[in-house]
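Sequence in, structure out. First:
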Amino acid sequence: MTDTPALEFWFEFASTYSYPAAMRVERLCREAGVALNWKPFLLGPVFKRFGMSDSPFNLNQAKGAYMWRDMERICAEQGLTFRKPSAFPRGSLLAARVVCAHPDAPWLGGFVRAVYDANFARDAEIGTPQVVADCLASCGVDPAPALAAADSDHAKSALRAQTDAALDKGIFGAPTCIVGGELFWGNDRLDAAVMHATGAGQASTARP
């Protein structure tokens, strides 16, 4: 994987469109020979930067209705179970801190998928320690030390720094992929991001 740039996958556990993307990004990168870096961040500060106090899908009723139907279609196409969460968006602080505390853990992809499955397939409260612990256990991870690491000052500051970095990079939503400085926003741009990492989809930056 050293001959191709890594794909940075910037995601929020409460983000709807991050769900179908997160469930396939690791497989796509593996098949393409592209290194994958999981980059959790919080959308709340991003929305606040743009003057929003809530998810745009809650603020705009028509946009929200479209999104929920679109998620049904996308998940059906990918063979994913989808259940509209009874609370949206859900708090994802603890789960994001788990990822920040274990950025190179071999079980990280499985944990990310387990949290998304809990939120969007099982309608579980992913902000609670018990649900996060269950997700860790499902990956064969001892929850107690993993949760303790997530509660450390290091994990907390890492998530804050990562959210600040997302804003600095011009990220305005999730999921966002960054490959060699190029930004690809949305589940529908995931394949293009992987192609760009392999060199197959790189476009010229020349301007007319």
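Second:
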Amino acid sequence: MMRIMRNKPANARAAAKEESHERIVRAAARAIRRSGYDGTGVADIMKEAGLTHGAFYAHFASREAMLAEAADRAGAESNAFAARVIAAAPPEQSLQALMHAYLSEEHLASIETGCPVSALGSEMPRQAPEVRRAATRRIKEMIDMVARQSPDWGQPAAHERALVTVAAMVGTLMMARAVDDPALSESLRHAVLNHFAPAGE
């Protein structure tokens, strides 16, 4: 009985720490997309998570370790959204549905919760190896998800088409966000959709 009573506080502490860790990672995953890696400070993340700055090192060995988890979480969230879009579409229209969702006006405006590759791609070469490794793993997952929508999935041609498709999607969204001309931003998205995923097909 006494052993059980001693375990309860320990379990409660572990659960509380896990919940705090989850809040930090969620906040960091939003922050990196909103402000960039260099614009994401530990103090701001901890404040957004409702925790003190001093509690940070109970959860992470370094800022880079936090950024790596944030990059992984952001990529996982984005890929989960893509998987839901694919699952909701008829199999023969899944890739078209994904491209239309990815290049939509809603995704364009949702930088904080959208694809981290299009939000952070230009910053990646300057990040720590563990951050790049986490992001790369999720990018590969995204490419594989797109390749699986091809009838010849598993063949080199399907993989190559997936590489081109993902590069077009990410590059287009980056450019559409970069320009300060709304008409050009819209034209970029529509041109790529008309080329890769015409609405009539």
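Remark: The radius of gyration is 20 Å.
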